[in-house]
Design a protein that fits this description.
This protein is 18% helix and 53% strand. By secondary structure, the protein is of the alpha+beta class. The protein has a single domain, classed as Roll (Lipovitellin-phosvitin complex, beta-sheet shell regions).
């Protein structure tokens, strides 16, 4: 009897591992899903034989309402519900957020960005396809800083776009979401994805291998390991960033991902992404930097997300 019981338990265990599931987003029309993020970025630049560190933390909470479902693509009406930024550089600390009641113009601008809808398109496989109508988010800049000159307003808008523009939002959201496999998969099964990030000063490819670690009654647990590198098919060009024409070359890096997803909807319950990136930065010759400059850069980034 004991032998048969042991065999039965073994069979149940093997069967649970062999059972395959279809991983995908299953969002409902007119339903709203939330995503809170905390992104920390530590940049170490070695310039003129000295390390220059810049530490940035960006926090935010977004709502995503399903307004259309077309074949395998969801159109989400997305809005910022809160935003904050903390920067440490050159011995100084700069901090502002959308809830601050103060004269800081950046806080005022963040406040005007709240509850302004823009569009996010994401496939059922978890691939962020596009961010559109993001300009509506910045429509209140003039009212937030009425005494600023047109040049100053343009500069403030550029600064906000570098952190909360179409490319940065799409990148951060894709980092938070997992790209699901096309076929059904069992526990301990793996699948690979390839993505290309067109960042402000670099084009980076990511080759990720995911593993379905576990399945519970209400959640999927997934992990991933990735290799990051410069996109060799797209030679980097100089792009405007932080007031300079710059590009990043010879990029190498790794990423480690841990996710917990709602089993019913596929939406994020918890996500944690850690990246380590190395590369060489080139600043183009300009009146600000005669002759230009080249220096190594190391980036350590951690993105945490939840559905609260």
């Amino acid at each position: 009897m004991k032998k048969y019981l042991t065999l039965s338990l073994l069979f149940i265990g093997i069967n649970s591992y062999a059972q395959k599931v279809k991983l995908q987003l299953n969002l409902q029309m007119d339903s709203t899903y939330y995503l809170g993020t905390n992104a920390s970025l530590d940049i170490d630049q070695f310039i003129n034989a000295a390390h220059q560190d810049v530490k940035t933390v960006i926090t935010g909470r977004m709502s995503h309402k399903v307004v259309a479902i077309k074949d395998t693509v969801y159109e989400l009406q997305t809005e910022f519900k809160s935003l904050g930024m903390h920067v440490e550089a050159n011995g100084q600390v700069i901090e502002f957020n959308s809830k601050a009641d103060e004269a800081n113009p950046m806080s005022k601008i963040m406040n005007t960005m709240m509850d302004k809808p823009f569009s996010m398109f994401i496939s059922k496989s978890g691939r962020v396809l596009a961010i559109k109508n993001i300009d509506t988010v910045y429509a209140g800049i003039s009212a937030a800083v009425p005494n600023a000159t047109p040049e100053q307003r343009a500069q403030l808008k550029t600064q906000m776009e570098q952190s909360f523009g179409e490319k940065s939002i799409r990148t951060n959201l894709q980092d938070a979401f997992v790209i699901f496999p096309k076929a059904e998969i069992a526990i301990k099964g793996t699948w690979a994805t390839n993505t290309t990030l067109d960042a402000p000063a670099a084009v980076i490819t990511t080759k990720m291998v995911y593993t379905l670690d576990n399945i519970t009654a209400d959640a999927y647990f997934i992990s991933g390991h990735a290799i990051l590198a410069s996109d060799k098919t797209k030679p980097p060009t100089y792009k405007q960033s932080a007031g300079f024409m710059m590009r990043m070359l010879n990029i190498t890096g790794t990423a480690v991902v841990k996710l917990k997803l709602d089993r019913k909807t596929g939406w994020i319950i918890d996500t944690n992404v850690a990246k380590n990136i190395k590369g060489t930065v080139q600043l183009k010759d300009s009146p600000k930097i005669p002759g230009g400059i080249t220096y190594p850069m190391v980036i350590t980034a951690v993105l945490k997300g939840d559905n609260l």
